[in-house]
Amino acid sequence: MSDTQPRLHLHDSRTRSTVPFVPLAPDNVRVYYCGPTVYDLAHIGNLRAMLTADVLVRLLRHLYPRVTYVRNITDVDDKINARAHANGESIADLTARTIHDFHEDLAAVSILPPDVEPRATHHIGEMQDMIRRLIESGHAYEAEGHVLFAVNTYPSYGALSGRTPDDLIAGARVEVAPYKRDPGDFVLWKPSDDQTPGWDSPWGRGRPGWHIECSAMSQRYLGESFDIHGGGSDLLFPHHENERAQSMCCHPHGRFANHWVHNAMLLVNGEKMSKSLGNFLTVRDVLRDTPAEALRLLLLRAQYRSVLNFTREGLNEARQMLDRFYRALENLDPMQDPVPVPDSVVQVLCDDLNTPRALAEMHALADTAMTGDSLAAARLKAAGNLLGLLQDTPEAWFRGGAKVDPTHIEHLIAERLAARKARDFARADEIRNDLAAQGIVLEDGPQGTTWRQA
Ligand SMILES: [Zn+2]
């Protein structure tokens, strides 16, 4: 990192303050994000967490020579078992299909893949090792085929989420079970019957609890101490609190995650998204009639720590912003060399990923580009690249929105050309007017006729 580069400041959930980000090892910044539990399509709330990670990792890669980004897949979970049973399909088929769809949805919105994407079922041995160590060190105990973590053996339990054990019990966020010594104790391992996926273990055939998965996989790929652990704010408690307790007790000399990043929730039309309210939106639902970049831009219009309200109007506004950016990019001279990302954009992103201000900087660049300034257009393009936006050419963008069959339009353009050659200007005008009525504008230039959406 050069001296002139802006310093990244990030909010840390554990200390509840925005602090300079100092990597443990600047030659390899290590990031872990909780990935999906693969039983259903990703919804736009999931997408917000994955996109926050994407922006963070893109910025870290801009600032540091190497970043290792790990995002897991939870492919053993009771929700998966229940869904496979309900669908009448095998767990393997359900998880393979869901992982495929998840990758496809994220790629559509230009979310880059992680460096390592470990699957929980491939790391059962690592989980069992951790559980064994926790039992040996007195932090976990066996009861009726279960292994439980004893929260009262870790004095800092609750420090990450800012809750006390009493709050946790009062909030009834813990499952009460007769075999628990303390109601706050949580499962590391649980028994499986013949119909449920299970692995042999010193505690009988069973399967891991959710929290131990992330502790084991982060340790395997990033070590006992790494830089950033992130996820949606809904994961702060109990998931991240429990991950931290397990990992800190298993590796008392490590720090687990040095810095915790949590994005705020997403509302749909001002309400919490839920299937019962009928406002539950998968990524696919939105992309059916919206360009993926518009969805990406909509999510970037709010800083990740503020609650984001998803609306159709917001989506239209995002699309209009992109129209404007792509209009500005039409001023990019094809001979113009690519330029670095403008400092002004990097600067505001380094202020706790202030994406709305980065977009404001892009609007200012677009203003200048629209005066015919090719350099400003190149800087706008570079800023877009850093944010995963403006990945199309203006021509492709303006065509992409068209509701009409492109082949049909090309056919009509050819017919119009033939009509003009035959001096049948009435027919030529008729074709132009018909297309205009469908929102298609023809532009005659030295290279022939092109079209775009109005
Ligand atoms: Zn996790």
TrEMBL record:
Cofactor note: Binds 1 zinc ion per subunit.
One MF term in the entry's GO annotations: cysteine-tRNA ligase activity
Keywords per UniProt: Aminoacyl-tRNA synthetase, ATP-binding, Cytoplasm, Ligase, Metal-binding, Nucleotide-binding, Protein biosynthesis, Zinc
Subunit structure: Monomer.
Protein family (similarity comment): Belongs to the class-I aminoacyl-tRNA synthetase family.
NCBIfam families linked: cysS
Record protein name field: Cysteine--tRNA ligase
Organism the protein comes from: Komagataeibacter oboediens
